[in-house]
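Quick bug: Regulatory protein RecX output formatted oddly.
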Amino acid sequence: MDDKLKQKLKNYVLWLLGRQEYSRRELTQKLQQKEATDEFIENLLNWCEEHNFINEQRYCEGFVRKHIFKCHGLKRIQSEAMGKGIDRSLLERVVEELEIDWFELAQDAYNKKYSDTPPNLDYKDKAKRVRYLMYRGFSYDEINFAMQAQ
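Here's what came back:
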C-alpha cells in the first residue's frame, strides 16, 4: 500500500468516526471492504484507540442506551451486540451499571403498542402480543408482568 492510499483510508476512518461511534470490528470490516491490509488496519485502529477516537466502553454504553430508548429487552440487546462485535463481559458490565428495570421496560413497550386494550383478550390476541414482546427481547416473566399490569 502506498502512502496516498494509507492517508485516504485514515481520512475515511476519521470521517466515519466523525459521524457516529463504531466498534473496532465494524471499522475493521469497512476497511477490509476498501482492501486495506490487516497490518495497516491493526495499526490504524490502535492509533485511533490511543487518541480516544475509538472507545469500546463508550460505544457499548451508547449502544445499550439506544436500545433501551427503543424499548428492547436484554435478549435482543445481547443478540444485536454479538453482531456488532461487542465483548459479552463488557456488555454485561454496562447493563449492570445502568441498573435497568426490565419489567418496567417491558411494560412500557407493551403500553406503547397496546395502549387501548379491551379487558378480555382471546387466545389469538394474547399470543400475538406475547410474540411481539418476545421479538423485542423480553423474557416470559417480564412479558407476563407487562400484560397483567394492563
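Actually, after a second look the formatting is fine. The chain has a mean pLDDT of 90. Closing.
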